[in-house]
Write a structure and sequence with these properties.
10% of the residues lie in helices and 37% in strands. The protein is mainly beta. The strands form 6 sheets. The protein has a 5-stranded mixed sheet. Strands 3-2-5-6 form a 4-stranded antiparallel sheet, with no helix packed on it.
């Protein structure tokens, strides 16, 4: 009886030791700010087992065996990192923001954040730098520089673009969105809002253009592609911007944007624009 009790105690101790050795835990943070990176992907390189960091950046992975392991941590907009250590120890990862062109993050191809090199569709991005370098207050004009896009001007301020043919001034085959939400004109016309869009140049972070049919993801009006305008986050882009511009055809434009972060949960931004001008004279070439 005594031998049986000793054997059971040894088995319990061995099970406890194995339980400690067959899991790995740790924390993932931003290298610059030290803030936790919730949702960071953590994977065991040899087996493919993995998990995601919680709201505090912590993670735990159950392992089938102990010994040396290599963990691979990745997060959208950050450089991947690997570390090797013993099972049962606590890892600490500090990820640095990525500056590579291939690590650019897009959201329009799959309705979720992903690196542009992993997007399952042809996608072009007009960045904040491209927008800032443009002298025009109409960001849509930059679409004319994208390969595969057909561009048409419909007045001093009106522009339109299309892909895959059948282009015209009243094109409704490209779905226009703002932050992933439909921004086509209301009332059932199905036409692009164009100059009636309420987003100003100073509040645009980037413009993502996906060429090709996307109706399976986005529904009607996405026959030939989508154009998704991503606005600036008031937490990341704080401060006040004021812009004035003028041009031919008596064009004058005044715009402002102000944004501020109140706390970790609340932030606000306000934008406004006044634009006026004299459009080109219309001459009817058929009935004149």
């Amino acid at each position: 009886m005594k031998r049986l009790l000793v054997l059971m105690c040894l088995l319990l101790v061995q099970s406890a030791i194995m339980a400690q050795a067959t899991k790995v835990s740790g924390r993932v943070t931003d290298e610059k700010t030290g803030l936790p990176l919730a949702g960071a992907s953590v994977m065991v390189k040899s087996t493919g087992a993995g998990t995601y960091a919680d709201d505090d950046g912590n993670f735990t992975i159950a392992l089938s065996k102990g010994g040396k392991i290599t963990l691979v941590v990745s997060y959208i907009g950050y450089t991947d990192i690997e570390k090797t250590g013993d099972a049962g120890t606590r890892f600490s990862f500090s990820l640095a923001p990525s500056t590579g062109r291939g690590d650019e993050v897009v959201v329009s191809a799959s309705k979720r954040p992903e690196k542009i090199t992993r997007a399952p569709a042809t996608i072009s991005v007009i960045t904040a730098k491209d927008i800032a370098q443009s002298s025009s207050f109409n960001v849509g004009e930059l679409a004319s520089k994208i390969q595969g896009v057909e561009f048409v001007r419909t007045g001093v301020n009106g522009v339109g673009f299309n892909a895959r043919g059948f282009n015209n001034a009243f094109n409704a085959k490209i779905l226009q969105m703002t932050d992933g939400r439909n921004s086509m004109m209301a009332g059932g016309s199905g036409l692009a809002s164009g100059i009636m869009n309420t987003v100003i140049k100073e509040d645009i972070d980037r413009l993502e253009i996906v060429l090709g049919p996307n109706s399976a993801l986005y529904g009607p009006n996405a026959h030939n592609g989508i154009a998704n305008t991503i606005t600036k986050d008031p937490r990341k882009y704080q401060g006040t911007d004021i812009a004035l511009g003028a041009g031919n055809q008596n064009v004058f434009t005044g715009r402002f944007r102000t944004a501020s972060k109140i706390n970790n949960k609340w932030a606000y931004k306000m934008t406004g624009e006044y634009t006026t001008g004299k459009d080109f004279d219309f001459r009817d070439s058929i009935y004149a």
